[in-house]
């Protein structure tokens, strides 16, 4: 099996932390870098959180690059947990590693150009605002040719928004970047709130993370509890969504999801800025067509997540046995 080359473009963030840990524990993915963009928290915090996460995963050699501090055009909007800032040191241990020099957008562009030159394709998993991906796509026509697919957590259709009534946060945070990416011609697979709210992390999942997934699992469980994602009135049952984990899971096991092709768009201004819309019946023609996830196999998704993260617990057990 040849691993899929992937760049994680994230704004860590609790569920971004889970997405990074899942990607780094999955042999199907060759993670080239983690790019940290402003979103859930300011960029200085997303960079530190990304560094702490790759160190927690035992892979401090994975490059972490600083992304954009602000959206392309819109006024900056931070996530509702922005006050959390950098992950607390008593939950996610501090690290001395530093980000790689250079900008995230330039790194994405350069790696995509290399992929195109070498006759292979790069996948991007986007779980934050799309600012750096949009910037990369404007740098050189070869960038789009080197990207196989962009798997994006973002948007909302029948679901209500999670930051404003009609907008999901990642789309609201930089709607102009999202519009640029949607129009780029690069294949897009979108994971909106409509599907991410179908899979809820519950107490028994947290217990498994703490019991079987090593220090990484304990930290992730603590961060999920710290962020308090439950909303019985909204979701109709206990638990909270694991939004940003879904596009990583898709790149590992696409058959977990039901997808529908659609022409995809986004409002960039006014009171509905960040609102995504889709035409599932329009003929493709010359308009770029996206795939939108509409359903997920919740049981298999959590089996994948917890099974892969158990590798961290197994590694710690093996290391302990070696020392003894």
Automatic annotation (TrEMBL):
<feature type="domain" description="Inosine/uridine-preferring nucleoside hydrolase">
    <location>
        <begin position="6"/>
        <end position="302"/>
    </location>
</feature>
<dbReference type="GO" id="GO:0006152">
    <property type="term" value="P:purine nucleoside catabolic process"/>
</dbReference>
<dbReference type="InterPro" id="IPR023186">
    <property type="entry name" value="IUNH"/>
</dbReference>
<dbReference type="GO" id="GO:0008477">
    <property type="term" value="F:purine nucleosidase activity"/>
</dbReference>
<dbReference type="InterPro" id="IPR001910">
    <property type="entry name" value="Inosine/uridine_hydrolase_dom"/>
</dbReference>
<protein>
    <submittedName>
        <fullName>Purine nucleosidase</fullName>
    </submittedName>
</protein>
<keyword id="KW-0326">Glycosidase</keyword>
<keyword id="KW-0378">Hydrolase</keyword>
<dbReference type="Pfam" id="PF01156">
    <property type="entry name" value="IU_nuc_hydro"/>
</dbReference>
<dbReference type="InterPro" id="IPR036452">
    <property type="entry name" value="Ribo_hydro-like"/>
</dbReference>
<dbReference type="GO" id="GO:0005829">
    <property type="term" value="C:cytosol"/>
</dbReference>
């Amino acid at each position: 099996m040849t691993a899929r080359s992937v760049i994680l473009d994230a704004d860590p963030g609790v569920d971004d932390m889970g997405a990074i840990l899942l990607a780094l524990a999955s042999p199907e993915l060759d993670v080239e870098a983690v790019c940290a963009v402003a979103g859930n928290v300011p960029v200085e915090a997303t960079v530190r959180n990304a560094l702490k996460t790759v160190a927690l995963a035992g892979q401090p050699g994975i490059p972490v690059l600083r992304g954009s501090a602000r959206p392309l055009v819109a006024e900056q909007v931070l996530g509702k947990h922005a006050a959390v800032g950098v992950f607390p040191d008593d939950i996610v241990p501090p690290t001395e590693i530093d980000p790689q020099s250079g900008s995230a957008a330039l790194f994405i562009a350069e790696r995509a150009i290399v992929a195109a030159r070498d006759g292979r394709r790069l996948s991007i998993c986007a779980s934050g605002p799309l600012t750096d991906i949009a910037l990369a796509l404007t740098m050189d026509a070869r960038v789009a040719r080197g990207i196989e697919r962009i798997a994006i957590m973002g948007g909302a259709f029948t679901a209500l928004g999670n930051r404003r009534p009609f907008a999901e946060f990642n789309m609201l945070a930089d709607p102009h970047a999202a519009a640029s990416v949607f129009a780029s011609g690069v294949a897009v697979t979108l994971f909106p709130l409509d599907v991410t709210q179908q899979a809820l992390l519950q107490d028994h999942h947290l217990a498994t993370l703490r019991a079987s997934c090593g220090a990484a699992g304990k930290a992730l469980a603590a961060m999920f509890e710290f962020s308090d994602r439950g909303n019985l009135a909204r979701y109709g049952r206990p638990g909270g969504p694991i939004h940003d984990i879904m596009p990583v899971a898709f790149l590992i096991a696409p058959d977990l999801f039901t997808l529908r092709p659609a022409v995809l768009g986004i409002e960039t201004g006014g009171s509905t800025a960040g609102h995504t819309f889709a035409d599932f019946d329009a003929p493709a023609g010359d308009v770029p067509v996206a795939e939108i996830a509409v359903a997920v196999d919740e049981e298999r998704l959590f089996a994948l997540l917890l099974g892969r993260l158990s590798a961290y617990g197994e590694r710690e057990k093996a290391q302990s046995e070696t020392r003894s």
